[in-house]
Design a protein that fits this description.
Strand order of the largest sheet: 3-2-6-9-10-5-4
Radius of gyration: 18 Å
CATH architecture: Roll
Largest sheet: 7 strands, antiparallel
CATH superfamily: Electron Transport, Fmn-binding Protein, Chain A
Strand content: 35-45%
Bound molecules: flavin mononucleotide
Number of domains: 1
Length: 186
Amino acid sequence: MTHGKVMPPVALPVCLLGANVLGKPNYCTIAWFTMIDDEPPTIGLFTGKDRRTVDGIRENGTFGVSVPSAEQVVAVDYVGITSGREADKSEVFPTFYGKLGNAPMARDCPLTMECELKQILEFGGTDLMVGEIAEVYTDEGAYRDGRPDAAELDPLLYLSTAATYHRLGEKVADAFKVGRSYSGKK
Ligand SMILES: Cc1cc2nc3c(=O)[nH]c(=O)nc-3n(C[C@H](O)[C@H](O)[C@H](O)COP(=O)(O)O)c2cc1C
């Protein structure tokens, strides 16, 4: 069965991409983001051509990435449907800055990181913002046994085809382990 060329339904965690625009923080919602490399720690976010937040990234060469929890859904959706070109979004999330000094992060998000812009790769409808992570900040409570705890982070997932938000479901298995029991039988 073929379905054309658009990717079928997937659940993606969303983040808030933040940049200072003319000295004020501006945030937008991003679902298309990924780690690119471990060393140096490199992250990539795909942004539409007209994003106000990108003006700030180009202006400062820095950006913040904040991973919200599900309970922040209203504000997260708001900054994803309203451009900084039409409204001042600087007060939507209380902001803090880290060592880069001008990469805004949302204080109430349990996991945030500040990044230095390394490269912009241009595609037809999007640009890939490639950034090196300078520092990661977490709520103390969001860590368990030295690792971020998914239940505490309570990340907000976006289901693209249904255009709905979801929480994480139950654990299914241990990654990099469960496959050892593969027997080849169906
Ligand atoms: C759930 C959701 C996911 C989104 N994912 C992306 C994305 O991955 N890349 C992107 O450029 N815009 C994405 N958007 C749209 C931007 O957040 C939106 O255009 C925003 O208003 C841009 O704000 P700005 O112009 O102030 O930067 C998403 C919006 C929502 C609601």
